[in-house]
Specification:
With about 240 residues, the protein is an alpha/beta fold. The chain is about 45% helix and about 10% strand. Helix 6 packs across helix 9 and helix 9 crosses helix 10.
Length: about 240
Amino acid sequence: MRHIDVFNGDADGLCALHQLRLAEPADAELVTGLKREIELLARVRAGADCVVTVLDISLDRNRAALERLLAEGARVRWFDHHYAGDLPAHPRLEAHIDCSPSTCTSILVDRHLGGRFRRWAVVAAFGDSLRGPALELAAALGLDETRIETLRALGEALNYNAYGETESDVLIHPRALYRVLHAYEDPFEFAAREPIAAALIDRCRADLAAARAVAPAYADERCALYRLPDAPWARRIAQT
């Protein structure tokens, strides 16, 4: 059986797939991209011998490609928290979709797996700006403030790496980042031992410092106008 994993390149997509493949290992083809690349399913060619797993991209935005894959005989499993519209009624479609504002795709996968790799769901929730749910999950794990802060910084950095206009704007392509990350079952070990983790956090902080250093082009008592340069850091910051 051929496996194809299609996922958003941000923290939520990365951590959702990571949890799933820790529980269900598969030598899968990876289809992903920057955060702005949503219609990823159009890149997939799959038939009756294929299982396509989709994480953290809108079904509604990929509906035509989904219908094509189902018609070609593929099995499709979908985890997502974005607007989906009407779900196709099809025996080869397994959909885990919850659009409530307090969830993200990694939380859906965490529920599906019974909390087996919940620390990664905490990372993703912080990356997706779901501070409340992230803290609830962290409390359930008994994590102290120092360890929570480690997961917060990691989640925000993983998420920030997906911002950019082109692949040259990011420190590491999400596909390559997933392959590095997937070697670690424990996010604390990843944060402590993997050089790319520190590099991602440093870049996020450096870009924010650069943005804060920009003087307003215009300001009065009601508003301020900032003009950012045509530079990679500015393109990353502008999308956050």
